[in-house]
């Protein structure tokens, strides 16, 4: 469509018109240069019955502004902008290394382990605790997330997006997703009650504590967005988004390392030269490790986790490139069109870390690298996610070599599902101590 109609065109998803933005120029022009107009959030039909416009991801207007300000500030206080988040990730990475050592080089499916480590970072900020990798309740929550993300991204999920008004009356994946997420919400609700009982106003320990204090402060304001419903769904948004995205990226990353062992070898070499084997990797190392950093950038580009981003909508009648987009029209910034643009990436459909390296082997910025989107609704966990990817990736490769029962040339990179999100294929891997 882009070749035929250019970078801006309308597609009817069932009965509703949606404006598609293709290429990094059109996306930046809308989301950055006309940030206010394009800052609305559209719906994803299959999860709309759960969120109904509550929580930071799917909220609009003043509700979104209040929740985003609160979430960003509180996550910074509890570890986003401070050194402490780095320490949390380093500690979690060491727990993972211990767990992988116990596998003694046996074949493992890394899905749950990668989910556990990313979930634990967000849990430590939101719930004030981490969970053991064998904790049954924790594993159940992760399984619900994984299954829901797969169903949201399935063919049915796409069909539902087109004909939700009609399909919502019939059985299907939307009912399973609703059940799954309500179970997670019940867990969050129980956690909130425990927080209420132990809350010390002079020393809030995590995001839920901070939210409860804010609720108390604003209880006389009938229009306050700090209510129980937003608390549950805001926590769900952060928990789900903070777990599934980074863990899927890591799953893709290690599958790519199995497929391209020569790239993994170069990363091993750089880790050995810069960090050695006696201390854990730290964020300061990233600047001295351009090749590893380029590999992680390329994993994100190639993994292309949310190909259509999340739907936006315009908050007023908007003039864009000579078109009038009426208020409340949905807009899809097609991130995949930027991440696979041949003008910016020499071999867009192949995994190639050189996309992010200059002639001297230094890391180079690439305008079209926007996996976290851009503008006012840019992913609020970008800082945490980038730190996690670097520290988890390097800590695992510092301690282990990787092996697969499948020959590199036979490793299939085709996603298991590709819709709202891309779900990496499942695979088995050996972590062999170095």
TrEMBL record:
Major subcellular site: endoplasmic reticulum
Topological category with respect to the lipid bilayer: Peripheral membrane protein
Alphabetized InterPro entries for the sequence: Cyt_P450 (IPR001128), Cyt_P450_CS (IPR017972), Cyt_P450_E_grp-I (IPR002401), Cyt_P450_E_grp-I_CYP2B-like (IPR008068), Cyt_P450_sf (IPR036396), Cytochrome_P450_fam2 (IPR050182)
GO biological process, one term: steroid metabolic process
Keywords: Endoplasmic reticulum, Heme, Iron, Membrane, Metal-binding, Microsome, Monooxygenase, Oxidoreductase
Gene3D superfamilies xrefs: Cytochrome P450
Subcellular location per the Swiss-Prot or TrEMBL entry: Endoplasmic reticulum membrane; Microsome membrane
GO cellular component: endoplasmic reticulum membrane
Cofactor(s) for this UniProt protein: heme
Family: Belongs to the cytochrome P450 family.
Entry-linked PANTHER family: CYTOCHROME P450 2B6 (PTHR24300:SF406), CYTOCHROME P450 508A4-RELATED (PTHR24300)
Name of the molecule in the record: Cytochrome P450 2B6
The gene coding this protein: CYP2B6
